[in-house]
Amino acid sequence: MLSTAFIAQFEAQIQELSATVAQQLQPLPSHQLNYKPTPTGWSVLECLEHLNRYSRFYNAELAQALSGRRAELAAHEVGFSWLGRKSYDTVKPENRKPQKTIKHMNPAGSQFTLAVVEEFLRHQAQLLELLAAARTADLNRKAVRVEFFRLLKLRLGEAMLFVVAHEQRHVQQALRAAQAAQNREKEALLVV
To answer: Phi and psi for 146 in degrees, rounded to 5?
Structure first.
């Protein structure tokens, strides 16, 4: 895919994620946002806090990769390495296989506030700014460290693909948690 189409696709996906979170999750009451559908499942806010922890790392990595003096590049084909494809396949939204998360990225067992949602939306705005800066960057340059093994680097385009797919995956999970919370309340009302 050409870099221009690649960036445009991500911009649309990030705008959609932001709108979904702002319209469907942010208005929910705190008890629904903190409801865990299963004892080991994550609440809405745990899903978003997990994404915030990744955004704190990857947004900074992307910003660093895009900063400094670099030659402006015209539209080009975006390629992928084995590591980039494997990273994407692990987190893509259609892969419903549960993945283990590393300990410091696991927010399970915490009670959070609406500030988590607000931080998520700020990270999305920042990511949109980074994508604008990436329009003329070489998306095939290895420049972004992998969070869990920082000696490995992803290409700029691969890192963007990973970040957006990971966010889509966990926003879908958050939506399912919200639906479970709402269904539980409806069931409780019917029992009374």
So the answer is: -85, 130
CB-based contact 127:144 (threshold 8 Å): no
Mean pLDDT of 144-160: 88
| Residues ≥6 apart with Cβ < 8 Å to 99 | 90, 91
- Cβ atoms of 190 and 56 within 8 Å: the answer is no
Q: Using an 8 Å Cβ cutoff, are 144 and 134 in contact?
A: no
Cβ neighbours of residue 15 closer than 8 Å, sequence gap 6 or more = 128
- From residue 105, give the alpha-carbon distance in Å to each of 15, 102, 148: 24, 6, 10
3-state helix, strand, coil in the chain (%, to 5): 65, 5, 30
> Is the separation of the CB atoms in 73 and 138 below 8 Å?
yes
User: What integer is the mean pLDDT of 142-160?
Assistant: 88
CATH of 3-191, one of 3.40.50.920, 1.20.120.450, 3.50.50.60, 3.40.50.1000: 1.20.120.450
pLDDT at 58 over 70: yes
User: What does the domain layout of the chain look like in residue ranges?
Assistant: 3-191
Q: Which of 89, 83, 91, 92 is nearest to 142 (CA)?
A: 83
